[in-house]
Write a structure and sequence with these properties.
Length: about 325
């Protein structure tokens, strides 16, 4: 017997018709998305992507949505933009300048809104040239960038880029426990059998995390494990499993080496305690990869991957400077 009638409302990527307590942000997006450049900032799980996608449905211009988590270089992002502008698949092998020319040609004959979600990952690769190119076009698009970690864009971009972009900033504050409760309750009503969720179960989740994506995953995992009702006790029991499922979803669009690296951090956390030296992580990563018959990546590349896991709030890193070894990094699994 399952208490789930329709799992869709509990999925992280589900876009419900109604939002909870985001009227101001929704209005600002609707008013400005087609008329000026925007910078949307807020912690993960605060509804930024959801509201932007909803606003894009009402836009009359051609829309391009690019996840910089998947397309984390200028070349990859340009391919995605050309594909959405032309509505055709774009094969690899083009030079960056050719992709830029095709974007420019398309924008000469149409208005467009381009959204660069998870811009943090593009900036992590020092790939701000895409922003400079798009913002300097004569018939340029309206550009919206979304970040979870970069709060002050002007401090991360070169002055020439920021002066061309000049975005209006829209801040998404973390949800309160009461707001998380409302979101879970609305989704549960559409997804689960009547009276199959105890109020205390939802309250418990809402008291533990402000990240709605994690909260929804947690409730979904609990519902799948429930025989008749989702109780507070059950929610506590599946907490670790829920975080594992959430982590798998976050890692889904990254490379297998990201997953080997996260596995290395997990294993060392269990064996050596919560805080691990980055050097030990690199060694364990090599062991994990070699066990699977994979060629290992360089320490520098793995260091970049570790920073990406940090951007996703899956690991936490503390940097120490000075001493015999100079700069060192201590890493721990980020608590749900």
């Amino acid at each position: 017997m399952t208490v789930i009638h329709d799992v869709t409302p509990l999925q992280q990527n589900h876009l419900p018709e109604e939002t909870v307590d985001r009227e101001r942000e929704s209005r600002l997006l609707t008013e400005n998305l087609e008329s000026r450049n925007l910078h949307i900032h807020g912690p993960r799980g605060t509804g930024k992507t959801h509201l932007v996608k909803k606003a894009l449905e009402e836009v009359e211009a051609r829309t391009c949505y690019v996840s910089c988590l998947k397309h984390d270089t200028q070349y990859k992002a340009l391919k995605r933009i050309v594909s959405q502008l032309t509505r055709e698949e774009v094969e690899s092998g083009h030079h960056t300048s050719e992709l830029q020319r095709r974007v420019e040609e398309q924008l000469e004959v149409m208005d467009a809104v381009i959204v660069l979600d998870e811009l943090d990952f593009l900036l992590l690769n020092n790939e701000e040239d895409l922003l400079y190119f798009l913002s300097r076009l004569e018939n340029g698009p309206q550009i919206t960038v979304i970040t979870a970690n970069v709060e002050k864009l002007g401090e991360r971009l070169e002055p020439r880029t920021y002066s061309s972009l000049q975005p209006r900033r829209i801040q998404f504050e973390p949800y309160t426990g009461e707001q998380v409760y409302k979101i879970l309750a609305k989704r549960a009503k559409k997804s689960l059998a009547e009276r199959s969720v105890h109020r205390n179960a939802v309250t418990y989740i809402a008291s533990k995390t402000q990240n709605t994506e994690l909260a929804l995953t947690w409730l979904r995992v609990a519902a799948r494990n429930a025989e008749e009702t989702v109780t507070e006790e059950l929610v506590e029991e599946v907490e670790e499993e829920a975080f594992e499922v959430y982590t798998e979803c976050e890692l889904e669009h990254l490379s297998r080496h990201h997953k080997y690296l996260y596995q290395a951090v997990e294993e060392l956390s269990r064996e050596k305690g919560p805080v691990i030296n980055a050097g030990d992580i690199y060694q364990r990563y090599r062991s994990v990869a070699e066990e699977r018959g994979e060629e290992t990546l360089s320490d520098r590349r793995i260091s970049d991957f570790l920073k990406q896991l940090e951007q996703l709030n899956l690991v936490k890193a503390e940097y120490h400077y000075g001493g015999r070894k100079g700069k060192t990094r201590e890493v721990s699994i980020e608590s749900p």
